[in-house]
Amino acid sequence: MKNINDKLINDSEFDLICEYIKLRNESNISQSELAKRVGIARSTIARMERNLHSISLGTFIKLLGAMDYKLEIVKKEEKNE
After folding, report:
1. Does residue 77 sit within a domain?
2. Among 39, 40, 49, 73, which lies 20 to 30 A Cα-Cα from 29?
């Protein structure tokens, strides 16, 4: 668990948001442009990126789709002990 802006989020959520931000930056898409593509407020994206606001899974999938990415589920790698 990570304490970000006085909010506890799990490592997986933190990693997912970090990866999304990396993809958005690599795609050279501003928060404003992405918000227009998806039809949400730029402030919603900004709050999500700062871990101040949780968005729905559906909205997250729309954000990824607007950047030409998709969310996939894969089995965890087994840890060697």
Report:
1. no
2. 73
Q: What is the CATH number of the domain that holds 37?
A: 1.10.260.40
Q: How confident is the model at residue 62, as a pLDDT? A: 97
SS3 annotation, 42-73: HHHHHHHHCCCCCCCHHHHHHHHHHCCCCCCC
CA dist 4 to 7, 29, 41, Å?
5, 24, 22
Structure tokens at 65: 């789709």
- Whether 35 is in a domain gets the answer yes
Q: What is the DSSP letter of 39?
A: T
Structural contact between residues 65 and 71, judged by C-beta atoms closer than 8 angstroms: no
